[in-house]
Design a protein that fits this description.
alpha/beta
Length: 328
């Protein structure tokens, strides 16, 4: 049974032994599950409003479909960082449904794999060494220094406001020689053949998403080099960028890319309402009916095989120098 803890980030103290206690307990404060509802969608209660997307079953399904699209694009690899085979501790930041944690726990059954999120929507039954924690990663971490071999994020552009602080915390809590890997999708739909319409509904959607997120202090249109620069500035070394294209739809001729695009298209068609509604109505002044009308246009464009659109996607990883003493 997965351990789900609602507490201050990491643990109640910095004693490394504290991570071995209560492996078959679930302790979630009632306030954590006192969900908020808006426009028929369910949103997280803990740190209410910090994360603008829903956490209901529709959104969970979208997240899992998105995960599968990325895994296909990545050649079924959960990460690219050249970590040691004997991983001991792994942290997944913004774990969502916990699907990445579960996969890594299968690959590395001897590793302790932690998932952190604002919502307790992870599976109750997991590998023995899987632990989920409900907390805010943008608060100071209380894990012991030099604790993790690998820290992983996936599509956190709409979640983290202070990336320099985040990378500083990662550097502190990784062991010397450990890795950080960020897998990010830029919300900036592109084509290589100028097939997006001149008045593209998808481009307008991306621009509105960016405008709304900027009001929250976040950036959705990034490049791998932007992430690489921030990792370097935090003190990571040997930072590498891998670039991918995730098709939106089944337009590619390559069978693997077409399958990737199919998952991505379904994720968008089923989940675009959750990605959009709260952001546009809360921060851009749109009415619900107008949002719904606009999304009809976006969905039609995404389904057109004449439009060869894709999301620029990046896996960026860097290493904590072996000379670091863990007190960064």
């Amino acid at each position: 049974m997965a351990e789900i803890i609602a507490t201050k980030f990491g643990a109640s103290n910095a004693d490394e032994n504290s991570f071995d206690e209560g492996s078959y307990t679930t302790s979630i404060a009632s306030s954590i599950t006192d969900y908020k509802y808006e426009h028929g969608r369910r949103y997280h209660a803990y740190q209410e409003g910090r994360y603008v997307l829903p956490n209901d079953e529709v959104e969970q399904n979208r997240m899992d479909l998105q995960y599968h699209a990325m895994r296909l694009a990545f050649g079924n690899k959960p990460f690219f960082a050249p970590v040691d085979k004997d991983l001991k501790r792994v942290l997944d930041v913004g774990t969502g449904t916990g699907i990445w944690v579960e996969d890594v726990a299968d690959f590395y059954p001897e590793a302790e794999v932690y998932g952190i999120d604002l919502s307790p929507i992870q599976p109750r039954w997991s590998a023995p060494k899987v632990k989920y924690q409900v907390d805010d990663v943008e608060q100071p971490w209380t894990y012991p220094p030099s604790h993790f071999d690998l820290i992983h994020t996936r599509i956190m552009l709409g979640s983290l406001r202070d990336w320099p602080f985040f990378f500083t915390q990662c550097l502190k809590h990784l062991r010397p020689g450990g890795y950080i890997e960020c897998q990010e999708l830029s919300v900036n739909a592109r084509t290589d053949d100028n097939s997006l319409p001149e008045e593209s509904a998808l481009t307008a959607w991306c621009n509105n998403q960016q405008e709304g997120m900027r009001k929250l202090g976040m950036e959705l249109m990034v490049t791998g080099d932007m992430i690489k620069k921030q990792m370097h500035e935090a003190g990571f070394v040997e930072v590498e960028v891998k670039e991918f294209k995730i098709p939106i739809g089944q337009w590619p001729k390559d069978p693997k890319m077409r399958e990737t695009g199919a998952f991505q298209l379904v994720a968008m068609l089923e989940g675009i309402g959750g990605l959009t509604m709260a952001l546009w109505t809360r921060f851009l002044g749109w009415k619900r009916e107008d949002v719904e009308d606009e999304l009809v246009k976006v969905k039609l464009e995404m389904q057109s095989k004449r439009v060869h659109s894709y999301w620029p996607t990046y896996a960026v990883y860097g290493r904590k120098s072996a000379e670091e003493d863990g007190a960064t």
